[in-house]
Amino acid sequence: MRVIIHQSELRGTVEAPPSKSITHRTLICSALAEGKSRIRSPLIAEDTQATSRILQTLGVEISEEPNLWEVSGGHLQEPTESLFCGESGTTLRLSTAVCALVNGECRLTGGPSLSKRPVGDLMDGLSQLGVKCESKGGFPPVIVRGKGRIEGGEATIRGDISSQFVSGLLLIAPFGSNATSIRLTTQLESKPYVTMTMDMQRRFGVVVQASDDLSAYQIGSQCYRPTEITVEGDWSSAAYLLAAGVLAGEVTVKNLDPRSSQADKAIVDILEGMGASVLHRQGSISIQKTALSGIELDLSDSPDLFPVTASLCSAASGNSVLRGLGRLRFKESDRVKAMVEGLRNMGVRAREETNSVWIEGGRPKGGVINPHNDHRIAMALSLLGLIANRETVILDSECVSKSYPEFWRDLACIGGDLRRLNDE
Length: 424
Fold this sequence. Notes:
Strand order of the largest sheet: 22-23-1-24
Number of domains: 2
Helix content: 25-40%
Number of strands: 24
Low-confidence stretches: none
CATH superfamily of the largest domain: Enolpyruvate transferase domain
Shape: globular
Radius of gyration: 21 Å
CATH topology of the largest domain: UDP-n-acetylglucosamine1-carboxyvinyl-transferase, Chain
CATH architecture of the largest domain: Alpha-beta prism
Largest sheet: 4 strands, mixed
């Protein structure tokens, strides 16, 4: 399916969808808690449904209503089929760890791009805790042979490949026969995502002792307790709506918690750093069209903001440099390469290095965009279509269903001039 976008003037209010990252973690903590948990306002998208499907295959009962999921957890069983993770890296990494708690063998697979997502360091950490794992070169498919518990002890892993490796180990560490110690050999990137994991564990009754710099963790044997949680709005998805407002009109985004631990709350600081005026109200953010200035920025702790920030830089005056991007080459696409390709297709001068991107701001011209099946690339480049001189065509536009299925509807509701066409 294609979306054709023309220059638009936006005005309106939209509600941010529920957080994808929190929905994943809430599902897993609920599955590990003996009893019934209730998840209110979960994100219903391809990635979160992949996690739900895997947990159900492992014997967890999940009742899914549109605004309420009830999870009866505490007992995992050996699956009778492979566990298909779709294209969700979070599902793959966190579920690989959960499978260590299954008494039996689990085989985790995924779609084409997921087969290129590394998981070797997580497997190494699991093996240090007494779990047998195997894969081909540290990539899916992954086979985990669990014993129903982990031995515990000490695991030493890197922190600069994926914070999901750390989160996965933390989620299962309370089930160690012995206390578990996790130590990182490199600086942790995407720290807020690990903080989010520990916050969610705390809400389910599990306490993790962490060093101030999040380089070391101590976890004793504990039990998750069932609870009821309402999933807050997703700052990652809201970033595209706020960027749309600052580029093309006046937009208010509701359902945003200013106290959130989500990494992508940093979009507010980025917008203000580029010259935008951000109006905070209780539970909402308002923004309007503003002349932006280029910026130099390290996105190591909020890498998912790279595509939307790159689009903002493309419409700003002056040059911008975005750094801390190395891990983005192993996302749904090589996100650095895909974004630079898209910007160039729209007439924007951009240059990539291994870990950074240089962008010369100006006026995008429109063009045909192949998002490489990457939801964040499709959404980010659609924003430039709102201000481009010519029409912009987003191919394979349905890829946004991975994290924000209603994105095109919401963009149209606030004034986006767009048409959706089925490809024959």
